[in-house]
């Protein structure tokens, strides 16, 4: 599973540099049943310009229900509250309408 690979990569990165803690993979978990429905995270810690890139994915059965929007909003809020981030960036494919919609709803991407 892709999550296993992400966890392994993040743990290896933590071993090399503990300052990346929090800037890797987070799971998107449904409150009502503790089911993992996706992952979200930053592609590394903030750079010298206090910028991070966010990425996310939700399993097909849970898509188009607002989970990605909620997760992105929460992680962006967390990043800005850290005092280490002034800018969050994201990329998605031009035909990924759902992801574009998530990013358009978030103020940092407008």
UniProtKB/TrEMBL annotation:
Give any GO molecular function from the UniProt entry. acyltransferase activity, transferring groups other than amino-acyl groups
Provide an example Pfam family for this protein.
Acetyltransf_3
The record places domain N-acetyltransferase at 1-110
Q: Which CDD domains match?
A: NAT_SF
The answer to keyword Cell inner membrane applying to this record is no
UniProt KW keywords: Transferase
Xref: InterPro entries: Acyl_CoA_acyltransferase, GNAT_dom, N-acetyltransferase
Task: Spell out the PANTHER family in the cross-references.
Answer: ACETYLTRANSFERASE, GNAT FAMILY, PUTATIVE (AFU_ORTHOLOGUE AFUA_3G00765)-RELATED-RELATED
Q: What is this protein called?
A: GCN5-related N-acetyltransferase
Which source organism does the UniProt entry give?
Answer: Geobacillus sp. (strain Y4.1MC1)
């Amino acid at each position: 599973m892709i999550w296993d690979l992400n966890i392994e990569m993040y743990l290896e990165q933590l071993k090399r540099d503990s300052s990346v803690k929090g800037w890797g993979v987070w799971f998107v978990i449904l409150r009502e049943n503790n089911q993992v429905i996706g992952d979200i995270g930053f592609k590394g810690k903030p750079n010298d310009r206090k910028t991070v890139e966010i990425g996310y994915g939700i399993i097909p059965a849970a898509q188009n229900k607002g989970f990605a929007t909620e997760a992105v909003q929460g992680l962006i809020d967390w990043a800005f509250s850290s005092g280490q981030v002034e800018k969050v960036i994201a990329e998605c494919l031009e035909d990924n309408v759902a992801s574009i919609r998530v990013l358009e709803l978030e103020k940092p991407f407008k």
